[in-house]
Inverse folding.
């Protein structure tokens, strides 16, 4: 009896191990392909940024140096664009937080007429070809004298991140056990105190994840910034595209591109250190 | 301390579901009353109405004669221990317990003294700096209890607090909670669907069904003198046999029990421990299975129509499966139309 049980148990375990090995191999292969697809272009850009001479048919640059870094960083328009991008991203994310966080709480905890329709409407900006939407908005902005202004670009970028700033916090608020809030009421906290001391701290990791995602998205956004902001408002990515398109020397664009990695790298390090991947997963319903 | 009075309270949810139906109850000072019933019987809704998390559709709730029916939860002199513990995972143990005291604006030194005192009482002295995820399920439940007790509430509300714990821990914690409740003489309303919990902890048990009380009484009375077949079947193990009373005897598939009641349909209720067996061939029933628990055995019996009964035997090995037996009830209750019509207790 014992022997039969042992044999019948071994078979599924060994077959499970085989499946896992197969899955691991497939996973490793996929990871390698994805890594190559992501890393190789980045590596090429980084090599260009630090190369002074790189001619065909050489596989690697013939001469490395910081000449183009010095030249790029000595340009006023680069620093202006960097400052503008940081200001713009901060303002857009702050305004989005003020509007979207209370709205998210309402979506997650209240029942009102048209709730589901309104909630789905935040997908609209991402459900249709974006450029068509941008052109339509640009036509409206033209009449409102918002073209080429800081607030014009801020508004268009706000539209871009509404979905993240509504959907992710809604998921965060919905994931909180209502009993926790009731327990706080039970020991004497009013509704505002409950929100401040219990709900918000519980949802904070996921909300910070949404803020970071929105900040990085806004920082790198080009379509809206170019269509609404040009020619007066030039964010760093718009300037980079200009360098790539108009400059004969590839290195200017490459240097600016590497510079643009900095904010997302900081955001990612911050996210890994303080939030953890589960907050992102929770935000997307995981 | 405090007296809780629930007067003709009903709760009808949106959609028309009646969770609690015209229920009245008084819990005396220092008494522990268990609300016992199956899922959907309205016991948790009633507890939540006392805590202020649900508003009664009708009726009034009083604590020490003060009407609290329309008071917000934060204004009520009640404290609830939730089934899911509902501890705040972003705070450590000390902050969880101290939160309510801080809201009351107590000085830091007094808060520290009170929190440390209550943590010691629940057996968690020195655990203040631990985060919630570093605690076991039992320890988390103690923190939840400490968080409620530190506020010295007039009424303690326990909503299936041990449901998520394993059997061994559940038994230990319920003894500890009962000890603390009796030491503090705190008026307590306790929701459970576990009859063992209710029988071992309660001063009185309220058996609920479909939002109404089926029976209110001391645990021994509810166990020994169930007023309805529902209570008889819900508390402990009970043999409930539907049959007919004809010419002074209850009959069903070979059983015949003389009864001094009028003819008509009836339900016979006999506890396994009150059902003696006498070997007989062919007998009124056949032994189907014998389960030996060491201290006693449970004999599963089968009537000729397939109805199953249980009998508790002190010497189960004297019987064997397939053997015929006659049934001799030492104590029985007879119900008709869900009401008791006859009770006979020989011993």
């Amino acid at each position: 009896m014992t022997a039969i049980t042992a044999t019948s148990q071994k078979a599924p375990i060994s077959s499970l191990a085989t499946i896992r090995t197969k899955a691991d191999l497939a996973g490793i292969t996929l990871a390698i392909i994805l890594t190559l697809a992501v890393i190789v272009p980045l590596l090429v850009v980084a090599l260009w940024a630090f190369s002074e001479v790189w001619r065909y048919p050489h596989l690697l640059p013939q001469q490395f140096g910081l000449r183009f870094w010095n030249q790029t960083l000595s340009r006023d328009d680069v620093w202006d664009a960097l400052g503008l991008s940081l200001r713009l991203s901060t303002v857009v994310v702050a305004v989005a937080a003020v509007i979207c966080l209370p709205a998210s709480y309402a979506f997650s905890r209240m029942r009102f007429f048209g709730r589901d329709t309104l909630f789905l409407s935040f997908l609209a900006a991402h459900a249709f070809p974006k450029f068509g939407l941008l052109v339509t908005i640009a036509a409206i902005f033209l009449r409102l004298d918002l073209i080429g202004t800081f607030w014009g670009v801020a508004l268009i970028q706000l539209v871009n991140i509404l979905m993240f700033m509504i959907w992710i916090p809604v998921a965060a608020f919905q994931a909180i056990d209502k009993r926790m809030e009731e327990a706080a009421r039970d020991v004497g906290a009013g509704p505002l105190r409950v929100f401040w001391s219990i709900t918000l701290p519980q949802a904070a990791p996921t909300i910070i994840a949404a803020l970071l995602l929105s900040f990085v998205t806004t920082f790198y956004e080009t379509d809206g910034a170019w269509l609404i902001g040009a020619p007066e408002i030039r964010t760093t990515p718009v300037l980079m595209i200009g360098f790539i398109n108009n400059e004969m020397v590839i290195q200017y664009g490459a240097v600016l591109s590497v510079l643009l990695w900095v904010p997302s790298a900081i955001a990612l390090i911050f996210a890994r250190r303080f939030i953890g991947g589960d907050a992102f997963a929770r935000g997307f319903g995981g | 301390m405090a007296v809780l009075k629930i007067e003709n309270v009903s709760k009808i949810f949106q959609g028309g579901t009646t969770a609690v139906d015209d229920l009245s109850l008084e819990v005396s000072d220092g008494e522990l009353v268990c609300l016992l019933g199956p899922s959907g019987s309205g016991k948790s809704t009633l507890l939540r109405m006392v805590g202020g998390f649900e508003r009664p559709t009708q009726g009034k709730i009083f604590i020490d004669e003060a009407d609290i029916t329309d008071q917000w939860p934060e204004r009520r002199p009640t404290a609830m221990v939730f089934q899911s513990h509902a501890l705040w995972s972003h705070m450590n143990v000390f902050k969880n317990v101290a939160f309510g005291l801080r809201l009351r604006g107590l000085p830091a030194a007094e808060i520290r003294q009170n929190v440390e005192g209550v943590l010691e009482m629940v057996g968690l002295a020195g655990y203040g700096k631990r985060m919630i995820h570093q605690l076991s399920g039992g320890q988390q439940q103690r923190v939840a209890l400490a968080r409620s007790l530190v506020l010295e509430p007039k009424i303690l509300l326990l909503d299936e607090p041990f449901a998520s714990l394993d059997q061994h821990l559940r038994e230990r914690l319920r003894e500890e909670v009962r000890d603390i409740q009796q030491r503090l003489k705190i008026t307590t309303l306790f929701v459970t669907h576990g009859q063992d919990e209710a029988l071992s902890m309660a001063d009185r048990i309220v058996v609920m069904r479909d939002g109404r009380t089926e029976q209110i009484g001391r645990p021994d009375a509810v166990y020994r003198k169930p007023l309805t077949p529902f209570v008889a079947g819900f508390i402990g193990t009970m043999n409930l046999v539907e049959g007919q009373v004809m010419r002074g005897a209850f009959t069903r598939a070979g059983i015949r029990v003389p009864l001094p009641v009028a003819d008509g349909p009836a339900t016979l209720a006999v506890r396994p421990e009150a059902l003696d067996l006498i070997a007989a061939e062919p007998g009124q029933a056949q032994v189907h299975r014998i389960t030996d628990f060491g201290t006693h055995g449970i004999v599963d019996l089968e009537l000729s129509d397939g109805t199953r009964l249980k009998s508790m035997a002190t010497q189960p090995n004297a019987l064997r499966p397939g053997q015929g037996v006659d049934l001799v009830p030492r104590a029985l209750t007879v119900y008709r139309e869900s009401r008791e019509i006859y009770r006979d207790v020989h011993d």
Observations:
- Residues 2-49 of chain A form one domain.
- Chain A has a mean pLDDT of 84.
- Strands of chain A lie at 51-53, 63-64.
